[in-house]
Amino acid sequence: MDKTFVLGTGAVKGGTTWLHEYLLSFDAYHKGVMKEIRVWETATQPEFGEFEVKLFDVKDRGDLFRWTFRTFPAAYFRFYNRIYRRHRVRLTGDLTPTYTGLSADTFRRIRDGFARRGVKVKAVFLMRDPVERCWSQQRMVERMGRPERYIRIDGDTESNLLAYHATAHCHLLTDYHRTLANLEAAFAPEDIHFGFYETMFEADEIARLSRFLGLAPKPELVENRFNTSDKTSEISDAAKARIAEEYRPVYEDCAARFPVTREIWGGWKHLDASAS
Fold first, then answer.
1. Position 55 pLDDT exceeds 80
2. How far is it, in rounded angstroms, from Cα 192 to Cα 202?
3. How many structural domains does the chain have?
4. DSSP states of 82-106 as a string?
5. Does the entry feature the keyword Transferase, yes or no (predicted)?
6. 222 is in which domain, residue-wise?
7. Are 37 and 65 in contact (CB under 8 A)?
8. What is the CATH number for 24?
9. pLDDT at 58
10. N or C: at which end does the chain have fewer Cβ atoms within 10 angstroms?
11. Measured between alpha carbons, how far is 66 from 17 in angstroms, rounded to an integer?
12. Over the stretch 4-17, which tens digit does the pLDDT of each residue have?
């Protein structure tokens, strides 16, 4: 049996929860421990240190697995490799959206760790208009009512967002051009799926993703949405323009690679307005 590991690499608020639920609808897929195990970014990126689990902080099964995999990385590969035979599936995965910030070396480490066990890694990277991605993340943290290390919730949404959008943490999650380069340095083109939140729920895109993973498309699931956050308040065009300008290199690189982003990413109107 062919064994495939689905490595979800983000983006945060880019549709990875929908991807997880879609994969769970297939008998060929088993989730392993949980949707996102959050091992590799805490091991390699200081900006995500707040999510590292210490042994004395272990509260549940998920924490125990996170601590074990972080402390003994080989256990990560052994655990997922056993799933194929134990559950008689050919697909499992780790869909951690903060893996957007991983380096090419870390992607290679994951690829090679599974290759030594006869498992093919297929990476999925789902992107979203940078302005909308940042804004949606801010709303999510505010909705949860718990500030994160870099994201405030004590002011209004716009001021909180503008305080966060230019931080190194936010750039790790939004600099898609760096993620793209790192993925392409580690994986063959046929082992990477690039998609966009704005179009991923269309039947053709569901079919393309399904073919990539060797699954029969289920377009009937197109209406299922998860973890969406309603826009209970607007942010100004000036704020949107400021965020878009911060991520101009992302817009320009993605437009060169994927011309459709010029049509589906609203941030372009602010960049075009500033250039005129």
1. no
2. 19
3. 1
4. HHHHHHT-SEEEEE-GGGGG--HHH
5. yes
6. 4-275
7. yes
8. 3.40.50.300
9. 81
10. C
11. 19
12. 999 999 999 999 99
